[in-house]
Amino acid sequence: MIDKDTLWLVIFGLGAGSFLLRFTFLGFVGDRPLPDWLLRHLRYTAVAILPALVAPLVVFSGEDGQTEPTRIAAAIITLAVGIWTRNVFAAIGAGAITLFALVYGLG
Amino acid sequence: MSTTTTKSAFWAGVRDGAPFVVVAGPFAMLFGVLATEAGLNVFEVMSFSIVVIAGAAQFTALQLMQDEAPTVIVLISALAVNLRVAMYSAALTPFLGTAPLWQRIFAAYLLVDQSYALSHAKFDAVPEMTVPQRMAYFFGTCTLVMIVWFACSYAGAALGTSLPPGIPLDFALPIAFLSMVAPMMRTLPHLIAAGVAVVVSLLAASIPYSLGLIVAGALGMMAGAQAELWLKGRAP
Q1: What angle do CA B12, B13, B14 make, to 5 degrees?
Q2: How does residue B140 score in pLDDT terms, banded at 50, 70 and 90?
Q3: Do A91 and B52 touch (CB under 8 A)?
Q4: What is the pTM of this model?
Q5: Are residues B209 and B108 in the same domain?
Q6: Are residue B93 and residue B209 in the same domain, yes or no?
Q7: N or C, fewer C-beta in 10 Å, chain B?
Q8: ipTM for the predicted complex
Q9: Which one of B65, B83, B222 has the shortest CB-CB distance to A41?
Q10: If we measure between CA atoms, which residue out of B183, B32, B220 comes closest to residue A43?
Q11: Range of the domain at B59
């Protein structure tokens, strides 16, 4: 059971910390121009961080961090349909259908 | 696009954000269910979701609290998972930095993967957007996702443990992120950035407290930036 004092400390600590992370540049830097090298790196934030976040979730998705073939297949289908159609909805749908079909069809 | 009004930019954001409802919903619901199972009541679950609004960080904190990790470790780990929002903040600053402070405060509170990914792609693709139009678009992308995020957190908490086991809700997040990333692979440097980030994140998966994510993200960004410079240097 989670201790209630710890819980509230974590909720507000995490809330304050997350807000500061989100506000740092938008709030404190404001409209000061950013240097070229920084902007050049920032162009690749999303295409670096999001795949880095997802890759371990996909590859180590089974129990105890095992590789789970149904998850890998769903991930590949999602990515392929997303690149092919450039449509987020189509990619999500294809990935979800693949996962459900594999989990319940082969179960 | 040059005739876009602030209002139509808002609704364009709402429209572009709509698909993410189907993934944010189950994810928030899963958080509600898991948090209830961990002993949180509805009020605590809702406070968590409203104060923090960060899916991956919330799951991380919940997991570590259940493991009875020290509070400092819980906070550091969950914030490390969330460090990427600082990079999002930096990435959106060139586009939104001149907006009024109160708008930037609200934008910061609502800065999540979805609003960042959609907005950054849009601002990049349509450079003639004005700052008020960009803000309107940004808030549009958040609107439905936030409503669904809060509502489904509540539904999950109320539903508690009565969900049938075996529904692969856990994979809603990876599918959502993959579907967002796929259309961004426009150029070779984008692909290189993503490829380096994936390889490093897998190699660094055992680095504790999710710091591997930060290392992989940083190296991916550097690889993308270097590739861009290199390709430019070779262009005629």
Answers
A1: 90
A2: very high
A3: no
A4: 0.70
A5: no
A6: no
A7: C
A8: 0.77
A9: B222
A10: B220
A11: 6-169
